[in-house]
Amino acid sequence: MTDIPTPTRSADLWDNSRLRARRRSELWLRGCGLAAIGIALLMLAIMLTTIVSSAIGAFRQTHVTISVPIPADMVDPSDPFSADWRGIMQDYIASVFPDAEPSELRQLGGILSNGAQFQVRDAVVDDPSLIGETLTITVPVSDPFDQLAKGYLNRDAPEDERRLNDLQISAYDQFEEAGAISSPINTGLLTMGDSRFPELAGLRGAMIGTIYLLLTTFLIAFPVGIGAAIYLEEFAPKNRISDLIEVNINNLAAVPSVVFGLLALAVFLNYFGLPRGAPFVGGLTIALMSLPTIIIATRAALKAVPPSIREAALGVGASKQQVVFQHVLPLAMPGIMTGTILAMANAIGETAPLLLIGMNAFLTSVPTSPFESATTLPTQIFIWADSPERGFVARTSAGIVVLLVVLVTMNALAIYLRRKFERRW
């Protein structure tokens, strides 16, 4: 019987020091990976905490309940819009502070928002029977008093170093002691248009403009992108021209967004004369940016369909067109929709190209069509961030929160669609 030789332990193979070194290297690599993830999560937590903490103030608005007499001799029932509503509000302030001097009444009247007179007017227009009666209504206070109520204004600072003097603070305290001050949820943030006064500024116009822009982008980029991807993947001959087109599509996906803005400014506005600042023009611009992403995602989804599907369809006599549109495209549609939603989510956050085509104008009216001037959520945030009033700081953060909620919702929808309709071959 032949003896089986005992294997010799090689120093290079069995050296414990080398094994320990390999393990240390592996642990070091894992530690670096965990540290990188931890730093990223920490930075994300700091960013979200900073934004949310700054935005909290914008989700509540300080209001004051007032009882305003509507004199019959000052308001014409047939034309209430012609009444001197500012004078009516000044008379109300004078009745609340009868001992105040005229110069002091102007300061005390600052407790009411500039839009209070229009809210009173609209209430009388809706109910003319209020003429000659006393209207009890709740209106927002102006931004300095809102900052006072939220604790952002230091009462103990010297009078010349704060926005409100002692007289104005005492007037606010008088309303608060009477139980007229409240802090309800600020629904106006989502239901009102932009304003120069922070307490009246809202995101409604920007949200409508964003919807118009995304709708235009989708209606243009989705069919064009899918059509281009189907042709390149299924029908185009493989030659230098198609290779050049593919390379340029991949390069366009990496072009800075400001370049598309300059293109839109030169072509859509200066050459074709399309309306400046319109969501339709913004949609055209964003559609150009989204096309490469949609084409790439669609081609990847088409490639993921097994060749056996095509071969089986061709084997039963289907034409090339029938194979693509009746068999391959329906199976690739979940991946196409996922890529399209991600492209739309990326488009909704674009700012630079929209600034170049004029979608950063100050507009108080809400657009009624894609061809009217409008802003979007990113450009509205940009406008508010450039405003000096303290109240716009919170509204800027609140706008960012709303935009993040929209982006997270769209990304979650893409993940849901991918998991729900994903097929494993």
Question: Summary?
Answer:
With 425 residues, the protein is mostly helical. The protein has helices spanning 11-14, 16-55, 85-96, 102-108, 116-126, 143-149, 166-177, 188-191, 204-235, 240-252, 257-271, 279-304, 307-315, 320-348, 352-356, 377-385, 390-421; strands spanning 63-69, 134-140, 181-182. The radius of gyration is 32 Å and the shape is elongated.
The CATH superfamily name of the largest domain is MetI-like
In quaternary terms, these chains amount to: single chain
CATH topology group of the largest domain: MetI-like fold
Strand content: under 5%
Query: From N to C, what is the helix and strand string?
Result: HHEHHHEHHEHHHHHHHHHH
| Gross morphology | elongated
The helix fraction, in percent, is: 55-70%
Mean pLDDT across residues? 88
Name of the level-1 CATH class of the largest domain = Mainly Alpha
Low-confidence stretches: none
- Taking all Cα atoms into account, the compactness measure Rg is 32 Å
Structural class: mainly alpha
Major sheet summary line: 3 strands, antiparallel
Give the strand order of the largest sheet, numbering strands 1, 2, ... along the chain: 2-1-3
CATH architecture assignment name of the largest domain: Orthogonal Bundle
Quickly count the helices.
Answer: 17
Strands, count:
3
* Total separate domains: 2
Distance between the termini: 54 Å
Task: Describe, in plain words, how this protein is organized in 3D.
There is one protein chain. With 425 residues, this protein is mainly α. It folds into two domains: 129 residues, no CATH class; 218 residues, MetI-like fold (Orthogonal Bundle), CATH 1.10.3720. It is built from 17 helices and three strands. Strands 2-1-3 form a three-stranded antiparallel β-sheet. The longest helix has 40 residues. The mean pLDDT is 88.
